[in-house]
Amino acid sequence: MKVLFAGTPAVAVPSLDALVKAGFDVVAVLTRPDAPVGRKRVLTPSPVAARAMELGIDVIRAARVDADTTAGIAKYAPDVAAIVAYGGIVPKDALGVPTHGWVNLHFSLLPAWRGAAPVQRSIIAGDDVTGAATFQLEEGLDTGPVFGTLTETVRPEDTAGDLLERLSISGAVLLSQTLSAIDAGQAAPQPQIGEVSHAPKLTLDDGRLDWQQPALALNRRARGVTPEPGAWTTLDGQRVKLEPVALRPEVKDLPPGSIRVDGKSVLVGTGSHAVELGRVQPAGKKMMSPADWARGLATPERVVFE
After folding, report:
1. 9 preceded by a cis bond (ω within 30 of 0)
2. pLDDT in tens, 115-132
3. Candidate from 37-51, 103-117, 212-226 with smallest mean pLDDT
4. Nearest to 276 by CA among 199, 203, 218, 232
5. C-alpha distance from residue 35 to each of 62, 74, 94, 112, 203 (Å)
6. Where are the beta strands (DSSP E) in the chain?
């Protein structure tokens, strides 16, 4: 079966590898254009493009699936298109190009968390279990019938990056199994059933920690926005980046935003009990341990995050 693979970030690479390993004829890869990376803004291929070139697979670079992109896909006459975090909408004309349409690997248990940031929103919401689903792509936002699912426990220390890494590996197996079932004529996608929730793309503001909120909500938010866009707060009007914070339920006497140095630990008050800071990155500096950061403060006991 001839497969067009569409994907862009690193979490899509395991799926590309799984399809190649399973013996599918991956005729081309669709990915977003090379993007500037690092301080020098060097144009760099996407992780999927880089892997496709290593595998000797043709690469179609497109910021969106327009008429020209659709025509380029059609030249390969794919039997099916597999899509994992491509980063763009597939319009109706392109949906009809592959014989079996487009199969999307989505990192949630649909219809929960439809949208661009399902894992991140799941952690922020405090879900105990999430997962992945393969479904038939259609014009609606992640609304198509589901071929298969898998579940994954959300661990107390999981960041979005941790959870996405695990789901990218298990999800790659699910995607390969789904395409095998389609190829064998045994696939039977079922309509989505259950409560719908939405997972819009994260913005920088989603990473801001509001110290009036309970500690558990701050812990979840910081983990959900790590590694991108990252958790942050402000001090004297300057943005301070933060790694995930740990719960310290035994400390209940710190006002929200106030800090206390406790040996090598730095505690911050919240709307419930304290949290312990992970690494800290002040404006214009590198990430550092909380103890090193606190040593640079003239009067740490007077510091209050805004």
Report:
1. no
2. 999 999 999 999 999 999
3. 37-51
4. 218
5. 12, 25, 24, 31, 19
6. 2-7, 25-31, 35-37, 42-44, 58-61, 80-84, 102-106, 129-136, 146-153, 231-235, 238-242, 246-248, 259-262, 265-268, 274-276, 280-281
Q: Which tens digits make up the pLDDT trace of 32-86?
A: 999 888 778 889 999 999 999 999 999 999 999 999 999 999 999 999 999 999 9
> Rounded distance, CA 133 to CA 32, Å?
23
For 212, the token pair is 């009036």
Instruction: Look at residue 120 in the predicted model and tell me its pLDDT.
Output: 98
For 284, counting Cβ atoms within 10 Å of its Cβ (0-12 exposed, 13-18 middle, 19+ buried), the class is exposed
* Contact status, residue 145 vs residue 109, Cβ threshold 8 Å: no
What is the rounded CA–CA span in Å between residue 104 and residue 115?
Answer: 12
- For the stretch 1-39, pLDDT in tens is 999 999 999 999 999 999 999 999 999 999 999 988 877
CB 86 within 8 A of CB 31: yes
Cα→Cα distances 69→35, 74, 105, 231, Å: 18, 9, 21, 37
Q: Which of 269, 185, 186 is nearest to 233 (CA)?
A: 269
How many other CB atoms sit within 10 Å of the CB of residue 20?
Answer: 18
pTM of the predicted structure, to 2 decimals: 0.95
Contact 38, 101 (CB under 8 A): no
CA distance 64 to 53: 21
Q: What is the mean pLDDT of residues 193-221?
A: 97
The token pair that represents 56 in the structure block: 């000797």
